[in-house]
Design a protein that fits this description.
The chain is α+β, with helices and mostly antiparallel strands. Among the domains are: about 35 residues; about 100 residues, Immunoglobulins (Immunoglobulin-like, Sandwich), CATH 2.60.40.10; about 80 residues, no CATH class; about 140 residues, Cytochrome Bc1 Complex, Chain D, domain 2. Helices cover about 15% and strands about 30% of the residues. It is built from 12 helices and 47 strands.
């Protein structure tokens, strides 16, 4: 019995196993069942969602940063997931079906302590399902890279602010520094009576530190600097391109004074305010009634330095690095790299000649420019009681003292105004950019280039406080014998600013003039920003725009038409050229400089909402309104995205499309003394558009902003972005702008101001 069952069991198993096979074969022979009509229609309508990119690809973690999420058919409720430490899940907001906004919180960083941190990015739908596609976001760890950005003295105390780390250190005459509370991004300091004023840029506000809790007053978007005259604080804003008066007692902002593209440093005294515009190189002088715009010209005398023989070829100004008013002398003093020499018969190029210019307050004329003989001056301090002007030469590590009355008196007197200078030795243990034997001598700066004096503040008695940006220290000088040209080092105190040593070496190389040529990287790209026009930067020889280095890491090649393939290649060429090869840069220097340049990011658009989305409408310069969402759609429909695809909005962002050149009808040179320029047209690469809302000028030649007027260049179109769109409409060759009406340009401009 048991044997019979055992023989039949395999047959039963085979029959049972065969049933599913027969069912499968039967089903395969039948016609497929028709899905329900409504389900088929829904399936046909449902597109495939795809995540493509997040941008900008390179962002600072110093402050909250709006992001854009690019893709196709992006679902509502999508979450951007970043591989930070710890991971971040960022809500996104709809702009349209293919574009969403998000906001990266301040301080986000990847694992470890690297300067540049690549973090993964992907998108999930509302149900937590991961969408197709992934991307990489690179974070610049600015939040852990303190830099001394501002200096002020109030009584016996000296205050130093760091924007990156949101810190404010206060030094007493002795003892360690203490800290005061600050907001987001302290960028400038000054005093008001016995109170300390702290201007914040990343979340605009002016804090008044007096006994008791700080009082918080309003400030315009993207503030840059402030100065106090009586009970009025003047604030420069590169968002509004204006100077804003703030009543410190009432806490109210008054009517702004137009100041030209990107006003930066300013001073105010006796009812007069003076500001220097970074992009145009012009100066704005306002006395409460009249407003004068001025710049160096062929009538400006150059006293000393390599450009003195080229005075008649001056085409305008360069960025004011600091300004101080001297009402009793009837003048103002401005530190800069000197009058901007344009096309000339000798083809003398890169016309840096650091010094102090003298502006007549009555006429606004720039009377003369006195060279400081070497280096590039930054901060100024004017001792009115002694008639002395002090200048911080960051590029060669010196503090220079000049006779202010002689500077103001005449060209001949100004020639003897340079009284003396003190080279500040670096502190013990500072990391050198080269071996010690490579410094000093007749044609090279000494070890003092490692200190980087940048900001000055007069102290009590015959003292001068010097904030050294490169050595991260506060130095005090004895100026008792300054009239004789003698300055003495009285004391030095290190700031608690140490991190990212390789980046700091690159920063030192960026700002210094080791070859004593009056040139540095910062001389053409002030703090990494655009700095007007330059004749010339190589072959072919013509007037070029001096562009910003924002996002440069993402958009090689460089130096059109040379098309250098990387920042390291460019650093090797430029650093050697700037020094006149005294000496040639080492590989260590090249890599350090390239690393520092890789960290330079574009500022976020102040037009974006807090959640990273677009507003419904944007008020444009001049008062017109634009719809940024309609502008985004027009940007693609009119062919702009073919050359400027996101997230960096240039084909140079990807190796497969890098180096494409185009002729879109824009001039390669301004028509200034064309016989002295090589102005034959050649094709150009499409520039990245991240930060274009805040760049001046635009286009390779600077024609997006500048015109030639009476033998000089003048910023006749302060809204450079609008000028580029109008030129494209006129030529019909730049995108598909031919025939676009003003409303269409309004929308396009509104979108571009979101980037």
């Amino acid at each position: 019995m048991s044997r019979a069952r055992s023989r039949r069991a395999p047959r039963l198993v085979l029959r049972l196993l065969a049933l599913p096979l027969l069912a499968f074969l039967f089903a395969a022979c039948r016609e497929p069942a028709e899905p329900a009509p409504e389900r088929a229609a829904e399936h046909a309508r449902e597109p495939t969602a795809r995540f493509e990119a997040v941008g900008p690809r390179l962002v600072s973690n110093r402050a909250r940063r709006p992001l854009l999420v690019y893709g196709a058919h992006l679902p509502d409720g999508a979450t951007l997931v970043l591989g930070t430490d710890p991971p971040l899940r960022l809500a996104t907001t709809r702009i349209d079906a293919d574009l969403r906004g998000a906001a990266l919180p301040a301080g986000a960083h990847g694992p470890g302590l690297a300067t540049l941190q690549d973090v993964s990015a992907h998108l999930e739908d509302a149900a937590g399902r991961r969408l197709r596609g992934e991307a990489t976001l690179t974070l610049v760890d600015d939040a852990r890279y303190p830099r001394p950005d501002a200096l002020a003295r109030v009584g016996s105390q000296v205050a130093v602010a760091s924007r990156n780390t949101d810190t404010l250190h206060v030094f007493e005459p002795s003892g360690p520094p203490t800290s005061l509370p600050v907001g987001d991004g302290p960028v400038a300091l000054t005093r008001w009576g016995e109170a300390l004023l702290v201007l914040h840029a990343d979340r605009p506000a002016l804090w008044v530190h007096a006994p008791g809790a700080p009082r918080i007053l309003p400030a315009p978007a993207a503030p840059q600097d402030l100065a106090v005259d009586g009970d009025t604080a003047w604030i420069s804003s590169r968002h509004t391109d204006a100077l804003h008066p703030l009543d410190l007692r009432r806490g109210t902002l008054g009517a702004p004074v137009p100041a030209g593209p990107n006003p930066r440093r300013l001073d105010a005294a006796g009812g007069v305010v003076l500001a220097g515009a970074l992009g145009s190189g012009a100066l704005v002088l306002h006395d409460g009634v009249e407003r004068l715009v001025t710049a160096p010209s062929a009538a400006t005398t150059i006293v000393g330095g390599p450009t003195e023989p080229f005075q008649r070829w001056v085409m305008g100004g360069k960025a004011a690095r600091d300004v101080v008013l001297a009402p009793a002398l009837g003048v103002a003093f401005v530190s800069s790299v000197g009058p901007n020499v344009g096309p000339n018969p000798d083809r003398m190029e890169v016309s840096m000649n650091g010094g102090v210019s003298v502006v007549d307050l009555a006429s606004g004329a720039v009377l003369r420019h006195r060279s400081i003989e070497r280096g590039i001056p930054e901060g100024l301090a004017y001792d009115r009681s002694r008639g002395l002007l002090f200048a911080a030469d960051m590029s060669t590590g010196r503090v220079v003292v000049l006779d202010a009355a002689a500077l103001a008196a005449s060209d001949d007197a100004a020639r003897g105004a340079l009284l003396g200078a003190l080279a500040l030795p670096p502190p013990a243990g500072v990391r050198l950019v080269r071996p010690e034997r490579d410094f000093g001598g007749a044609d090279r700066a000494g070890l003092e280039v490692h200190t980087g004096p940048r900001h000055l503040a007069l102290g009590e008695g015959a003292t001068l406080h010097v904030l050294c940006a490169l050595s991260r220290e506060l130095v005090t000088l004895d100026t008792t014998r300054a009239e004789e040209g003698v300055l003495r080092l009285r004391g030095r105190r290190r700031l608690p600013f140490t991190s990212q040593p390789r980046r700091r070496v690159g920063e030192t190389l960026y700002y210094t003039d080791l070859g004593l040529t009056h040139m540095s990287c910062d001389g053409c790209h002030h703090d990494g920003d655009a700095d007007g026009l330059l004749f010339t930067k190589g072959q072919p020889m013509h007037v070029y725009r001096s562009p910003s280095l924002w996002q440069a890491r993402e958009t090689p090649p460089f130096f059109t038409p040379a098309l250098f393939p990387s920042l390291a290649f460019t650093a090797d060429f430029v650093l050697g050229r700037n020094r006149f090869h005294r000496p040639d840069p080492s590989r260590t220097e090249v890599l350090a400089l390239a690393r520092f340049q890789e960290t330079i990011t574009a500022p976020p658009s102040p037009h974006r909402r807090a959640d990273g989305g677009f507003p419904e409408s944007v008020t444009l310069p001049g008062g017109r309104e634009g719809d940024p969402v309609a502008g985004w759609r027009a940007f693609r429909e009119r062919g702009c995205a073919r050359c400027h695809p996101g997230p960096e909005h240039t084909t140079d962002q990807d190796p497969a499309t890098r180096g494409r050149l185009h002729d879109v009808g824009t001039p390669v040179a301004l028509p200034l003394r064309p016989a002295m320029q090589d102005d034959a047209p050649y094709p150009l690469p499409p520039p990245g558009l991240v930060g274009v809302h805040d760049r001046f000028p635009l286009l390779h030649s600077g024609a997006g902003g500048f015109d030639v007027v009476d033998g000089a260049v003048e910023a006749t179109h302060p809204n450079a972005l609008r000028r580029v769109l109008e030129l494209g409409r006129e030529s019909g060759a730049h995108g598909e702008l031919g025939g676009a009406d003003d409303a269409a340009l309004d929308d396009l401009e509104a979108f571009l101001r979101m980037l």
